[in-house]
């Protein structure tokens, strides 16, 4: 079953999240129509390879054309229209930057895998629960409702101002008419009646002026209250969700809704400002004793300007945090002299601002860091915000060619060079601009979340650990001295984040049993980890007991092993992985001989082993664990093939494959058959020959078990056997004779 088919079977709460990350950047129609083709391409590799991305984009457009031909024959007018529009959009948007669509599709596929993994987990974690609480959803709806009500009130006040203007024009006309009469005419009864009517009209004008000012004051008060409370909370909540998403959590949405709210409020404030300007114009034409306009208007104008300043300042946000395209799943870790991207948005979307706002990027501006290291940004660091580059037409700017460069210290010091000191130094990338609109000049500043600067890719794992710990532990966006005294983190939340590392990076999260094993690994004991606080040192600085590496280095090596060598097996759920030696024996002892499970080595970095249960002649149960396979061996021989072909030579020198059933009782070939590089029937026969006259050889992993030996079986001896010999043996000899011949 394709990944997309599995996604469509998710519960509605997960499907709502899927809907959030498919937009005009990558329409869901294309994902649906080209599901199998999309999943068969390596978009992640293409996101770092422009030539490969260009080819994939061309092939994607060809696939869309094929679909167009198909639906044209079916005369599906609506789908034809949509596909033509989508094709034009894809070609126009990504023709000059094909790597961008590779990044987008790679991220979408990864988010799908994360959701599938989350759906398979029995319990939602505490962090994810807090991000998706009903209180947050209710507040979002409340904000949208209030903004809409404010917009309606401002528009209604427009009508009141227009009525006031018409009333004053009528008064002005009638008053000037009387003033133009001769003095003798002014004493007539009719004129005196007109004067009384004008006085009544003036009273009405005074009442309407007070009423309009009162309504304007109420609109301003409503905007002030909304900005001070609900909207501020909503923005802070979005920023927190962004932090969590950066370290592997649920994809954060809601920025388009915030943009709609900010834009409507800005439009309402500018509308009120125009209403106050109109009142000032009316004031110049008519004033009188007790006129409320000169008394109240200046205060209202000052308040409107104050709210506009604050609204604009809060609307300038980092939409996508700094990230190297080469490591899309490790944002905020930047390597010197390597390009990174970062995207900013102004949540106030006004056409008058298109291409009028120039944003400048700097690093560590006016900030004292804990480091002696200083950096500058190379590349294009000043760009104009526009509405053309974003699919949703938002007012944004994306810096794609920035490079951090370390400056030489004037004192000749190389600064702190310890392996942890460098990766615990936090830096800030700042952005500044100026908005000039309708007589207002507003200076805007914002900053990225803290970033870690590395000079060697070997520092990446520890740097990423720092990013995880910071964004898990604090909401403060600019605490650059955080690691002077890093706080402990709730173990329950940390384990949830660790599961996210697996779901986002290798497509399958961790279940409760696997997380329990990690908890024991971190604490050295069985704990009720809901209340346990873990220190930064335990996570990333102190070596595991009896080992020469930290917990995080061990875990990162496992992630790398899965990604590069056993990814399909991991995604299928056939790698138990995180299970202690004691626990595996408990699981296997009552199983059929030949039952085995796969677990990660606790003593070797990036190693995977398998343990099987056997039964001695006297009925006793025994366990065998093979020496862990590392990336060196797995680069030479696929792990699924190792499981298929593995042999054990017993004391009587008869080789046999001891692996029969994957725990708990899955036949080995049923579990791993689709991952074998070739089936036994496909092995070449003698007549096939080999390169340059040689017969091709295959490697069979073999271990030797001596009944009196306490050493673990070792796969170090890989006995070569030509595929032709292997095929002939299987075709003409019984299994017993084959094993003897081997």
TrEMBL record:
GO biological process: cell surface receptor signaling pathway via JAK-STAT; defense response to virus; negative regulation of developmental process; regulation of apoptotic process; type I interferon-mediated signaling pathway; type II interferon-mediated signaling pathway
Tree of life domain: Eukaryota
UniProt keywords, alphabetically: Acetylation, Activator, ADP-ribosylation, Coiled coil, Cytoplasm, DNA-binding, Isopeptide bond, Methylation, Nucleus, Phosphoprotein, SH2 domain, Transcription, Transcription regulation, Ubl conjugation
UniProt keyword annotation of DNA-binding present: yes
Cellular location(s): Cytoplasm; Nucleus
GO terms under cellular component: cytoplasm; nucleoplasm
Xref: Gene3D superfamilies: EF-hand, SH2 domain, STAT transcription factor, all-alpha domain, STAT transcription factor, DNA-binding domain, STAT transcription factor, N-terminal domain
Coiled coil: none
Annotated SH2 domain residues: 570-648
GO molecular function, one term: DNA-binding transcription factor activity, RNA polymerase II-specific
Main location class: cytoplasm
InterPro entries: p53-like_TF_DNA-bd_sf, SH2, SH2_dom_sf, STAT, STAT4_CC, STAT4_DBD, STAT4_SH2, STAT_linker
UniProt-listed Pfam families: SH2, STAT_alpha, STAT_bind, STAT_int, STAT_linker
Family: Belongs to the transcription factor STAT family.
UniProt name for this protein: Signal transducer and activator of transcription
Species of the source: Galbula dea
Gene label: Stat4
